[in-house]
Structures are given as structure tokens and as C-alpha cells.
Design a protein that fits this description.
By secondary structure, the chain is mostly helical. The chain is built from 7 helices and no strands. The longest helix has 16 residues, at 70-85. The protein is elongated.
């Protein structure tokens, strides 16, 4: 139990100048848009420990990405990436939703395949 308490104190300790805290929060917001879903918290803690950033601030920034904001954030990032790469989001309308089974899956993949790089680039930008 003592080890767990020490770990919690290490992670939740707020220290540093306002500039350092703001920098950590900004890095956390950047990581919130990271395209690989599900690794945000671990990635934020790893970056915080590696670069000696404020852990509370980086986690607060990372948690800007939550179940209620993930769809709008990733959609906006994909639209931005599409604008940067010249890819229209209209590719999704090519999906034939009347299909079923494997045919629907193939149509779904074909419609979203063109949006993969806009998704990655837009959410990293």
C-alpha cells in the first residue's frame, strides 16, 4: 500500500512555473489528438516522465479527449487532413449500406481507405 501511495504522490505532484505547466498541458492536448486510439494516457505519462513535464497538467490536456468529444475531434482532424491532402470526405457516401455481411465490410473498407491518411495527418496537425 505504501508503494501505491508513493506512486500516486509522484504522479499527482503539481510543481513548476506557470509556463512549464502550460507547456505540459499543451503537450497533453496534442497527445489527445494522437490517431492511435487507446494509448493516450500511457503515452502522456511516458512523455511526462521522459521530459520531466508536469504529470497532472499533461493528463488534464490528454483527457480533453473523452467519449463525448472523440467523434467531433477525430472528424474535425480528418476534415483538416482531407483539406491539406486534397481528399474529399465524400468518399464515405460511396459505401453501399444496403449490402450485408462481407460485402458491406468490403464496401466500408473501400469507402474509408481513402480517408486513412487524411485522418492520420489531420489529427497529428
Amino acid at each position: 500500500m505504501r508503494h501505491l501511495r508513493r506512486l500516486a504522490q509522484l504522479v499527482l505532484r503539481v510543481e513548476g512555473t506557470p509556463t512549464q505547466v502550460a507547456r505540459a498541458f499543451g503537450v497533453g492536448v496534442f497527445l489527445a489528438f494522437f490517431p492511435i486510439f487507446g494509448v493516450h494516457t500511457l503515452l502522456a505519462l511516458g512523455v511526462a516522465f521522459a521530459f520531466r513535464l508536469n504529470k497532472v497538467a499533461i493528463l488534464a490536456g490528454t483527457f480533453m479527449n473523452n467519449p463525448w468529444t472523440i467523434a467531433p475531434m477525430y472528424t474535425a482532424g480528418t476534415v483538416l487532413g482531407g483539406a491539406l491532402l486534397g481528399v474529399s470526405p465524400a468518399a464515405v457516401s460511396a459505401i453501399d449500406w444496403s449490402l450485408s455481411g462481407g460485402e458491406l465490410y468490403e464496401s466500408f473498407l473501400a469507402g474509408f481507405r481513402v480517408l486513412l491518411w487524411p485522418f492520420v495527418l489531420g489529427n497529428l496537425v
